[in-house]
User: Fold Oxidoreductase from Nonomuraea aridisoli.
Amino acid sequence: MTTTAPVEVGLIGAGPWARTMHARMLAEGPQTRLTAVWARRADAAREVAEQYGAVAAATPEELFDRCEAVAFAVPPSVQSELAVRAAKAGKALLLEKPLGLDLASARAVADAVEEAGVVSQMVLTKRYLPATREFLRQAESFSVTGARSCYLHGAFLGGELATGWRLERGALLDLGPHLLDLLDTAVGRIARVRATGDPRRWVELSCEHENGAVSQASLSGSVRLPRARTRVELFGEEGELVYDTAGLDHDEAWPVLRAEFAAAVRAGRSGELSAARGLRLQELIEAAVTR
Assistant:
């Protein structure tokens, strides 16, 4: 009986999201093994690494030498720079959204991935939930006339996620990739999109889809709610089809994400949620604000 060796993964970042999701997920295995951690704050990297029996790397290049894949849990401006270097070093990439802080940096990552021929996968967390996949499966045979959606929470009002780039760029760049991905997949390919409002407070997206359907997305990280609210409603002649994350256990996503990333690395082939998908979502965000 042949046993596939776990994929050795290095983690870039040691902040809250790196500690609570990436490091724990990658270390739990069995498909992956956390081998090294690098962060600009050496003490933070060392704390995370020691918790999971990994090495605190002194430089990104040392981390690359200690792994076959690199996971990112850093601001998009840092991710885009280091992801290009990791791809050129021949490493598979587990990438956060947004791919970059702007379209040019996102394109640089996607281009580097393509040129190096490395595996890439986006951490669009909701896509790995069984409930999301069932909704998207049902949407394939649902004729949509129109749709509305929202992703709302109060994390920007204070706490660990109220970080510099989120407060500066707001919900469009942080939450927008999630809803645009779901609408682009469930309703149909988005042909045109425009944004109104202030992304730091509340932004509204209006989308026209290639199949003639229209949809809306409401985004805010600055409204006080008991819990985050993500909801997508599809309407058509058949009735309605609703996706709502209320009551879902988001921990169900991590084993799926880990297993699919490891399988892609071992097969040498990226899946649907590759860096190219991240670039597509960044292009939609750019189009929304330049119309």
